[in-house]
Every structure is written in C-alpha cells, then in structure tokens.
Amino acid sequence: MTPEDFDRLQTLLATRAGFRLTRDRMHLAEHRLGPVARREGYHNVEAMLSSLWSKPVASLGWAVIEALLNGETWFRRDRAVFDVFSRELMPALTAARPGGKVRLWSAGASTGQEAYSLAIAALEARADAEIIATDLSRPAIEKATSGLYTSFEIQRGLSARTMLRWFEQVDEHWRARPELRGAVTFERANLLDEPADDRKFDVIFCRHVLNDLEPARRARVLDMLERRLVDDGCLFLGLDERPEGDSIAFRPVAGRKGLYVKAPSALRRAA
Amino acid sequence: MDEAADGAEALTYCMGVMPHVVLLDWQMPVMDGLAFLRRLRDLPNGRTPKVLFCTIETRADRIAEALSAGADDYVMKPFDGEILLSKLAEVGAVQSPS
After folding, report:
1. Tell me: the pLDDT tens digits for A104-118?
2. Residue A33, CB half-sphere, CA atoms under 13 Å: how many?
C-alpha cells in the first residue's frame, strides 16, 4: 500500500464513518484489507484500492471501511462499569419506571458482547428492558445477531456459570440462548447520520467509540447522544474517554468511572 | 507457585500446605482433575482454595460437572493471561486488573 493509498483511506474513513485512522495503523490496515481483496477477487490490496479510487463502488467502499473499524470488545468489558449498571442503575431505573420499560442503547455495539452483557443483567434482575444495539459494521451486526461466539470469545468476561446459563454449545462455538437473543434488537446504524426515529433511552452505552472518532465529529456524536437520552438518563463512556473538550452537555458522576449524566445547561436547554 | 504432576501428588501437597488458588487440568495421570477436586473439597480446609480448571476439555456437560463438584470457574484452552487474570479476579483470588 502506498502512502497515497493510506491518505485516501484516511479520508474515506473520516468522511463516511467519522473514524480516525492514525498513521501507526498503516500495517494493520494492509493486513486487514488482504482478506477483503481476496474475497472481492483482486490480486492484492493495491489492485483493490486502485479500482476503488478509479471507480468508487459503494459496496466495496463499505467493505473496506468495515475491515478497518476497531471492533475490539468483550463481555462485561471493564467489570466495575457493569457492576454499577446491574447493582445500582437497573434497580433504580426499574423503581423509577413502574410498569414501564427501561430503554437501553448499546451504541457502537460491534459484535454484540456489550449488548448481551446488558441483557443478561436485565434478565437476571427480571427487569422489563428494551435493548437496542447498533453498529456501523454490517458483518459485526450479523455476528451479533447470530449470537455465536468462539470458546475464546465467550470466556472473555463471562464466568463459566453465566456462560452455561445463557449460552448453548454448538460444536466448537457457543450460541446465545433464544431468550437472550430475543432480549436484544440489533440494527445497523451510523452514529453520524440523523436518527431515523425519535426514540429516547434511559441508559446509553457508547464506550470505546469517541476516542476512535475524528475530533471534529465527536461534538456532533455527543450532541446526538444528549438528544437521545432522557433527562434523568445516564451515559456510559469508555474509562479513558472524556466528553469535556467536545461537549458541555454531560457531567461525570463522582466515584463512578465512565458514568455521565446530563449537565444542568443541557437540562435548561431542553426545558 | 508450585506444580504437581498428577492429581494424587496435588492432593498430597494440599494435605501439607493448603494453597490459595489451584489451577487444575482435567486430563492428568493417576487421578484426574475432577477426582482430585472432589477429594480436595472433602479435606479439612479443602473448601478454602479457589479452584479454576484450565483445560482443553470444552464440553458443556463436563464444565457443569466441574462446577457442581466445587470448581469456582473454568477456563477453556486456548486462553490468554488476560482471561485468566480476569477470572481469578472474578472469584476474588486476585485484585481486578481493570
């Protein structure tokens, strides 16, 4: 891959996905695009990119974008965050919404481990929850919807007891049981697009997304998250992600790493 | 960290110095992991150590059998250090890595 190819990839990722492809990922990009080139029938990555630049085809462009997104995830990633969610937030929200559903959104859900972790917490608490999980990557959403994980993936974050309770063995893989799969609705969505509906959520998990976004796109995504969150709702970000430089809509909750609520200024604006 | 070559040797070791954590294979000569675990849990103070299976045995019924015999958790090979550490943290054998 030439430096010019990489420059154009950076532009493609930034404009279509808001994704920041840093130059230190050049070799990783080449490695990940190899299988895409073979699958699409090209001799090598250079030939595929040359074709893409000369005659942009949407499906090939998205295949390239999807291969370069950061899909790293695992069950109950940052365990303390999920402990706060299941031990403190879910009981409080259930009490605050008597007879109503608690609405959860896993934004940037990748292959679904976060969404299923939320669903397990909700089902074990017997909470009436509606869980929506979205991601830009179609293959990631397809895998999430299948609920099928390798032995390596399934034990990243899940105890054996929880695994046996909520997953069934299918040859060398583990599939989410129907009750668990039925608890989550997976959809492909781009966080940069205007939402197709006006759904609001009690809790939004948008973790390990902001840091991968182009700085110029973070404010827009945070603004959208603020609009999709009910006034007394909560936002979870990755432990190393901070909204402060890009948005004044959220304030951190003391003693609860990664947890944010709407700032008074955002609430006044809504009123 | 100490090692034992088989279940019988491990049991003899535990009769002398009860460890805090036992990482246990399923397939072992003389006495397999499950038999060792059952004998361990019958020892005075034998409920003390945290026991994690680390094994190529991945059948769901075997995993359930290990848990009901008293295993605290179960790690299927292949795994990495991060998985092992997080499971040790989950059962309270080490501090959480996160």
Report:
1. 999 999 999 999 999
2. 25
